[in-house]
Fold this sequence. Notes:
The protein has helices at 25-40, 61-72, 106-115, 117-127; strands at residues 8-17, 43-48, 52-60, 77-87, 99-102. The model has no long low-confidence stretch (mean pLDDT 92). Strand 2 (43-48) and strand 3 form a beta hairpin. The protein has 4 helices and 5 strands, in the order βαββαββαα. The protein binds flavin mononucleotide (FMN). Flavin mononucleotide is lined by residues 15, 29, 32-33, 36-37, 46, 53, 55, 57, 67, 70-71, 74, 76-77, 98.
Amino acid sequence: MPADAHSLYEFFYTSQLDPQTSPTVVGQILSTARPHNARMGVSGLLVFDGLRFFQHLEGPRAALEPLMGRIVGDIRHQDVRILHEGVLLQRRYHRFDMGYAQTDDLDALAALISLSGVPAVERFLHMRAGFDIQA
Ligand SMILES: Cc1cc2nc3c(=O)[nH]c(=O)nc-3n(C[C@H](O)[C@H](O)[C@H](O)COP(=O)(O)O)c2cc1C
């Protein structure tokens, strides 16, 4: 295993709900994600506007990379675009295996896609204060 496999890593991506899939699938996703993430030491936040997902994931790189591979291959969503990934010094979501928030601020979310990279992550973290997060 490479020396940095245990170092903290983060992914921030956006995707679209598969058009054949009901928005109620979020409940199933969370009920799988939460125990998995707790076991793997992964934490983060999933935001859904009824059409588009934004997810910020953090945890040991050795756990996060295969998880991201599974998520990319998940047929319940499509057009997965990784806006940022990289080494992380400190966790941001200690409290959540996978926090969840719904929002109808479509414009603010759309702006994140055009930002991408670290500025997109920073804007998302700033928006977090306005989310009603279910842990
Ligand atoms: C938008 C979205 C977010 C997801 N987030 C997670 C997550 O944080 N943790 C997780 O284990 N699975 C998550 N999943 C589910 C994974 O894609 C996958 O179904 C799950 O890890 C089980 O994989 P397995 O059946 O290969 O064990 C997510 C799926 C979608 C569509």
